[in-house]
């Protein structure tokens, strides 16, 4: 069969979900293709390929874009089998009853995907395949979620949540988690590289593990762990031998200078366990490339940092998320003291390890708590900026909080009336303006400006005057579009020369600047596009929270 994968856009991180699903399909003898909505060639690809199956993988915020694309596919040929997987359908499986998909995939679908393709190829029934929800089996495998009444009602709307918001899959319909990753095929990077700039861009992404045991309330992993309770260990990873075999082949096939491990947690243990010891010995010999990884400040120690440095660690990210103790540990549940954060960043500074920190702006706090603490909404964001400066973070990113399904923080926001629970109104990028109704327009402006100016302040930790000018004056001015350009220059410099150091030729650097600036501009959602498109299937067509509708005049 011919399978067409649809991606909204491809930036600088490999779409590893699509690359794995394509490899799994090719294992069974199927042909795979890719269309990218931002390239505006869906219609041409449908006519050229005439696919049997079209597959989407959707995160909340961009899911409505895929709904539109699916309608385009079905209008071209209703006989094409369309399937959607990813986080959005995993937490909203009821969408199978309200949208014209033939199936949706829930949770880990490695085996379910292959079984579905085999059934379609042979004409066999597929309604009993675990993790695959269809219109025919939905009534049997979906159930109403048990939630507090205020979470089942759109705040202030007076009407019930749409069915896809109100249903969840019965856990008995989920197969156990895959505990052995080594038998998965190598990612099909060819599928993506032959159609995008990534073939010549020397940064490669990889996931060495799956799962995360922590309880951060802005993340879907805790809900995912509840779904899979009793179905295998939370955290599973490749063996060092298998991991290095794929990276070695990747290095030989594609120009590669740097590896970005995108695991939720690259190391879990404060001790140097057997896996890390082996990795520190084998990776430099077999792969020998500098790498970046993610961990937590309360996990990092001198010993495990030393082992990673021996392996080739260049940069690490440890999310701070909030400078205020109450916000960080009570609302976000990072369970991390400020002293632990400062100590971990001091250790990296001492050892010459470049650091990246993700810190969330616009985390809503109840008014009674703010009154008790004597703070405003913006005071919490300024505390976050100051903690990044104190930690001497190399590159600090300040996204504005967006509520996503399956997250405890989202339920907290709905329960307190900060968000009405309508995920269809979310903008596709969390870099956009806050979607929460509890902030005034001025507060939303300050948050958006601080997300642009904050990284520049952190770049110069000794320039107290820059921090004060930013906090007291610049963030309050309606100059967001102007601030975008110094932010973009700072981000580009920090990414290419500090966090992921790469040697790019001048023509390559120019091409990547031209490519990335358009996408970053759109994620920040100014009112006008910087370029024209014909069909704009990769953009929202209606007003979205955190971002405006497209300007029909552009």
Describe the structure.
The chain is α/β, with parallel strands linked by helices and 554 residues long. Helix content is 41%, strand content 12%. The protein is built from 21 helices and 16 strands. The strands form four sheets. Strands 2-1-3-4-5-6 form a six-stranded mixed sheet, with helices on both faces. Helix 1 packs across helix 5. It starts with a strand and ends in a 31-residue tail after the last helix.
How far is the first residue's CA from the last residue's CA? 39 Å
- Our count of domains comes out at 2
Discrete helix count: 21
Average per-residue pLDDT, rounded, comes to 89
**Main β-sheet: number of strands, strand sense, barrel status?**
6 strands, mixed
CATH class category label of the largest domain:
Alpha Beta
Radius of gyration: 23 Å
Summarize the structure.
The chain has about 550 residues and is α/β, with parallel strands linked by helices. Helix content is about 40%, strand content about 10%.
Which helices and strands occur, and which strands form pairs?
Blueprint: E1 2-7, H1 16-27, E2 31-36, H2 42-49, E3 53-57, H3 63-76, E4 81-85, H4 87-91, E5 103-105, H5 110-122, E6 132-134, H6 138-141, E7 142-144, H7 163-166, E8 167-169, H8 189-193, E9 203-206, E10 209-210, H9 221-227, E11 236-237, H10 240-253, E12 258-261, H11 274-286, E13 291-295, H12 302-311, E14 313-318, H13 325-331, H14 338-351, E15 354-358, H15 367-373, H16 377-390, E16 395-397, H17 408-415, H18 441-459, H19 464-472, H20 480-499, H21 506-523
Parallel strand pairs: 1-2, 1-3, 3-4, 4-5, 9-12, 12-13, 13-14, 14-15, 15-16
Antiparallel strand pairs: 5-6, 7-8, 10-11
Helix pairs in contact: 1-5, 10-11, 11-12, 16-18, 18-19, 18-20
